[in-house]
Amino acid sequence: MPLPHFHPKPLWSPELYTSSRPIIIAGPCSAESREQVLATARGLASEGVQIFRAGVWKPRTYPGSFEGWGEKALPWLQEVRAETGMLVGCEVGLPQHVEAVLRAELDYIWIGARTCSNPFSMAELAEALRGTSLPVLVKNPLTPSPDIWKGALLRLVQAGLTKLALIHRGFDSFATPEYRFSPLWPNILALHEELPQVPLYFDPSHIAGDAALIEPLLRTARALPYEGWIIESHIAPHEAQTDAKQQITPAQLGQVLQTKPASEEALQMELLRTHLDWIDEQSLILLSERRTLAKSIGNLKKTQALQALQTKRRDDKLQRLLKVARKYHLPESLIQSLYREVHEESVLLQEEIIQAEESKDKP
Ligand code: PEP
Ligand code: MN
Fold this sequence. Notes:
The chain is α/β, with parallel strands linked by helices.
């Protein structure tokens, strides 16, 4: 794959790289009105932010919610640039969006997590961008496989784009108790090791899903090799029409930019713990699948007039699991007690199914 040989050009002019802190991109999730955009931009400019973001076309999970003002909002971004001198950009999802952004002469774009998972969309966007020198940042797809993300980047490389970066915005884990999207730092570090030349940006807002979690995430991010951060900021977060919980005011943004890096020990602990949490969450998803299968088996046992508890099968299965446990150096006592709990729960579930159906069968 040609990506390892791809050497991107810097996205921004050299003055933006002189500060010791990461490059900061900030602005509201959505451009909601001219006033909201300008007030937020003024606040951010006074905190020293030099690159402004605002979603203009919003990819919403369900139809009927606020989908952004579209092209009508582009002049608001131009006004931000004229008044504050900030660079301005937005998300694109369709070739028409690219054309509108090029007409409005915005300074950069990003491709969202949902769009970049779709190779047809990426091929169309890459064609629409061919021949331009627009900086493009590509968010990670919701699924953790790096290949879809790398494929999206490669399509842009093949269309001749050179100012490219990746945005780490977290992965769908179907069960993230703390974060809205799981950071899966080890995957990001592995990708960075493979493609160290491609700048990485960190989006704590979409990972956190909660304004209070942004600062702790930035402590970890500060200690990792991100070129920049992209953070959602709104002049009145509680009034935001999208992602209200995770947006912070420009003044709060000024505060979190002061975040000090985690110590080496805290960093190692965070990386290991978030990976461990991910594994625990995946185990719960597997347990839930197991429960669904146990229910179906319960129904079959009922129709075949079998008892829920099959002791020979239970004991044979435990022996098989203990063999696997030995192969993976897992303590036998752990596997014995885990299996006993899981199995007992299944039997109870199946007994309920069998009894419920028996009482229903009775006249
Ligand atoms: C956004 O940046 O507002 C956005 C929609 O992000 P993502 O594609 O990461 O969900
Ligand atoms: Mn958002």
